[in-house]
Amino acid sequence: MRTVYFDNAATSYPKPSSVRAAICSASNDYGGNPGRGGHSYSLRSAEMVYETRQLAAGMFKAKPENVVFTLNCTHSLNMAIKGIPGSKRSLVISSMEHNSVSRPAYALFKRGARVDVARIGRTDEETLESFKRFIKPNTGCVVCTAASNVTGRIMPVREIARLCKDMGVPFIVDGAQAAGITELDLGMGMNFICVPGHKGLLGASGTGLLISDGSFALDTIIEGGTGATSAELDQTGFMPEHLESGTLNTVGIASLLAGLKFIESTGIGSVYNHEDALCDIFIDAVKDISGISLYRRGDRFVPIVSFNLDGLPSETVAASLSDMGFALRGGLHCAVLAHRTIGTLPNGTVRFSPSVFSSERDTLLLARAIKKLSKDGV
Amino acid sequence: MTYTLIAVSSITYAMKAKRLLNNLGYYCEIEKTPKGLSSGCGYSIRVRENSSYICELLAKSSIECKGMMSVNR
Hints:
The complex is a heterodimer of chains A (378) and B (73).
Chain A: E1 4-5, H1 17-29, H2 40-60, E2 67-70, H3 73-83, E3 90-94, H4 99-110, E4 114-118, H5 124-134, E5 141-145, H6 157-167, E6 171-174, E7 192-196, E8 208-212, H7 250-266, H8 268-286, E9 292-294, E10 305-309, H9 314-323, E11 326-327, E12 329-331, H10 336-342, E13 349-352, H11 360-376
Parallel strand pairs in A: 1-11, 3-4, 3-5, 5-6, 6-7
Antiparallel strand pairs in A: 2-8, 7-8, 9-10, 10-13, 12-13
Chain B: E1 2-8, H1 11-23, E2 28-32, E3 43-47, H2 51-60, E4 67-72
Antiparallel strand pairs in B: 1-3, 1-4, 2-3
């Protein structure tokens, strides 16, 4: 039986054919360790790594040296949140954060930091009021997701960036669900953007980026070989090597390069319009199903729709849909704060998240399957 | 032929320099920095043109020249 994949908020699948080809050929084409030798193998890998850095820099309006390769978005967020010296003192996060933000914040809280949670309101104005209450000139840093991984709601990060700038406070944005799908770049005013390479940027798993505007230096959370300043015991002080200890994921970066090129040629606007239209089609097709709850409050969304069927555990619904040939994620989506905020604890939700390769036909077939489940039970 | 090796901070800056200079039509290749030019692992760019002028160009793009030496090859 064919299974239709609608779990792109977890990781994108399928990858473009160019990405798959890049993964296959990379271990052959880029066998040398970039930045670790002067021979042609090493330099060839380094060329590819720099090309990727440069392309990502263009997309996020950064300097290439301020684009750091990481393992995933969680890795980037940990490096940024724990690397800001002031976060040991205090930080402000939103009430819709993924555990990749709330857990590092909680870890800092246990070590003595003050953590304030700004409530995401029904409107952006309410949200901004909540942030305004907490952001002070001595706040260590502010962290907010660009878009919720549970509801898809796009957060007013441009306006939060303005509040932070007025107070001189570093602002870190979790771009896990926004990168490659909707507008997200340093021009919006944030100081750090953390993104996965394997979701909207369409690269392989094990890739991520930490992008900065260079206005706040980060302490390291790991140190080691960087291929530079090797005679010194102190960690390399300049970017990006300061934050890139150890051998880079060359195969993953090659896949990310292909993913970035795919997005560049397709256009982020086209990607968004396709996926957003599928969400509208999905909502339209399921909204009248008896017992369905849809969790979409707000004005702007990335292509994610969370729902529940009355009386049925979300994980059970997701399992039944899997049996019927549809891959969706049920549960808490590693975002306990977000589910607490929208009132879906402990059941969580079932999450529909299409990609640029998803079709209207498959979306309507999924809606039909949900209708059947609601009528016949799981 | 005589070249000038210009040591830069890292492979990232060497790549940045190479792309910048190649785009401007200058010859530029990358190699490991030889002992005597700087300590530790490092990268240099190999150029043919007036190296002081090249360093000025690089400085405009925040690429620091960490040292220079002439080589005959």
